[in-house]
Amino acid sequence: MITVGMNYQLIAGKETIFENAFRQVVAAMQDMEGHQKTHLFRDIDNPQAYLIVSEWNSRDAFDDFIRSDRFRKVTNWGTEQVLAARPVHEVYEK
Question: Of 9, 10, 35, 41, which one is least surrounded by beta carbons within 10 A?
Answer without folding.
Answer: 41
